[in-house]
Write a structure and sequence with these properties.
Length: about 525
């Protein structure tokens, strides 16, 4: 089996790789050097890591790991080991050799600390080894790991965050749940899921639970929006009480975005809060709704009007679960992806434009770029949440772009639209309002509308009373001092405006809901 050694400068990856090469005759491949030699090539992610070899190789990598597709190729089927050491130790090693030996002051220490923090997402997918050990000891540790059975799947990002353990990968659902539960003190869990999902994943999850000697019960909840009602919550809470799930137990939510949303609410209110692990099985869940610690249920007047903040202790994003997702669900989820692109992620915008342009011929869309799309959106959501965990009129309000209308529209239509489909109408409305009041650059709005047109989202006339939607807009939970706050895209972020006349909103919304262009 090939070995991948990752770590920051000074961690000793090259020295350990050379030691292993001397012991076994393995070839050394410097991934960063290979990419640097092919700058400007049509596909700089293609290299020797994509070709099977007759004899094992040792790969070393650092900066190249920010490339999602390369990381998936490089980590798949290989042992990944992270050589980790405090920045002070790394700088001490680097100062002993040029060019850092000539650099005075704390600059290198600050740079290495920041680099290590940024790269922990990608290094963390490997088995963590103490890089302060001698090179020979580290080589021994790698050999020991190679003798052990390797877990299934490919883990490509893993980090302890301020709101829990986040793992991203392919075919990692079983190991991800096990990793999260092993960090908790309890020995029992309740798995909240719907019948269809459990039929598909139950055997794998049950096997993983038995492997860590975890006792568990399965609680079947209604599918879709039916899970997000007070009556459904009451039945679920009673079942948990009958099962005697204790405060040291855990809830594992396995299902679509609505199941994860409802289960977050359940975990937040049962016994005043029990640990939660979320395992979203839809694109919408993985790019947005299963991250951030908001659990909600709906009322007749609007979506998510009753809820709690309850951060998960573990988030498992297994892209493999999305492979057979219905085309309508995937397509609708791309409205949320577009939201993140409009918030200022230029590379994500390029990705979604490419996926959207190919949408009519691809089912489901976005397959090739899906891992990178999931990762970019998930990390963007996580960083925003960490900056404003409880949504206290801070950075997190930006995530409401397009949602003031979408939540109102969903409620007015009795949830006949998928969430992403409603968001598409909301984005069209927000972009048109932004252009009208001089906040949103017309070119940005045009790009966004073109993507929605290509995805065939928010294009059709919807049979709904505009006044009914406006009534629910007036009940939006993010209102401040009695005024609706509109999140409007600026090109580099958002502007928050609470002075948009209702007459302008109603006029633009009416055109959008009739399927007309908002010129």
């Amino acid at each position: 089996m090939d070995v991948v050694l990752v770590g920051a400068a000074g961690s000793g990856t090259r020295a350990v790789a050379r030691d292993l090469g001397r012991r076994h005759g393995w070839d050394l491949v410097d991934v960063d050097a290979v990419l640097a030699a092919h700058v400007g090539a049509p596909d700089t992610t293609t290299g020797p890591w994509t070709v099977e070899s007759g004899s094992p190789r040792v790969f070393i990598a650092d900066g190249a790991l920010t490339r999602t597709r390369l990381r998936h190729e490089l980590y798949s089927g290989r042992l990944v080991a992270w050589l980790d050491a405090p920045p002070t130790r790394l700088v001490g090693r680097l100062r002993a050799a040029p060019p850092l030996a000539t650099l005075p002051g704390p600059g290198p220490l600050t740079a290495l600390g920041a680099h290590g923090e940024a790269m922990e997402w990608y290094f963390g997918a490997g088995v963590r080894l103490d890089a302060t050990l001698p090179t020979s000891r580290l080589a021994d540790e790698v050999e020991r790991l190679l003798r052990q059975a390797q877990p299934s799947g490919t883990l490509v990002a893993r980090a302890d965050t301020g709101v829990g353990l986040l793992e991203i990968g392919d075919d990692i659902v079983a190991r991800g749940i096990a990793d999260a539960l092993l960090r908790l003190p309890g020995e029992r869990a309740a798995i909240l899921t719907e019948r269809r999902v459990w039929a598909d994943l139950g055997d794998r999850i049950a096997s993983a639970m038995r492997a860590i000697d975890a006792r568990f019960d399965v609680v079947i909840v209604p599918p879709g929006e039916r899970a997000k009602t007070l009556s459904s919550q009451f039945r679920t809470l009673r079942e948990l009480a009958n099962l005697r799930l204790a405060r040291r137990g855990a809830i594992v939510a396995v299902g679509d975005d609505r199941i994860c949303d409802a289960a977050t609410y359940t975990a937040g209110v049962y016994l005043r809060g029990v640990p939660l692990v979320t395992v979203p099985t839809t694109t919408l869940g993985q790019v947005d709704l299963a991250i951030g610690g908001k659990g909600s249920v709906n009322l007749d007047l609007g979506r998510n009007l009753v809820g709690v903040f309850h951060q998960p202790t573990g988030i498992v994003l297994d892209v493999n679960l999305l492979r057979d997702e219905p085309s309508r669900e995937r397509r609708a989820a791309f409205a949320e992806v577009l939201k993140y692109a409009l918030l200022g992620d230029a590379e994500l915008f390029t990705l979604i434009e490419a996926a959207a342009s190919d949408a009519p011929s691809r089912s489901p869309i976005g397959e090739a770029d899906l891992p990178e799309i999931v990762e970019r959106c998930a990390l963007a959501k996580l960083r925003t949440v960490l900056a404003d965990e409880r949504d206290l009129a801070g950075p997190r309000v930006a995530l409401n772009l397009g949602h003031t209308v979408s939540h109102a529209l969903e409620a007015a239509m009795d949830y006949r639209l998928l969430h992403g489909e409603a968001v598409a109408y909301g984005l069209r409305t927000a972009l048109a309002i932004g252009v009208e009041v001089g906040i949103t650059p017309p070119a940005l709005a045009e790009r966004g509308v073109t993507v929605l047109d290509q995805l065939q989202l928010g294009c059709d006339r919807v049979e709904v009373d505009v006044e009914a939607v406006m009534t629910r807009v007036a009940a939006d939970k993010k209102r401040l001092r009695g005024r609706t706050r509109w999140v409007l895209a600026t090109g580099s972020g958002v502007a928050i405006r609470s002075d948009i006349p209702d007459s302008l909103v109603g006029q633009i919304l009416g055109r959008v809901l009739r399927g007309q262009t908002a010129d």
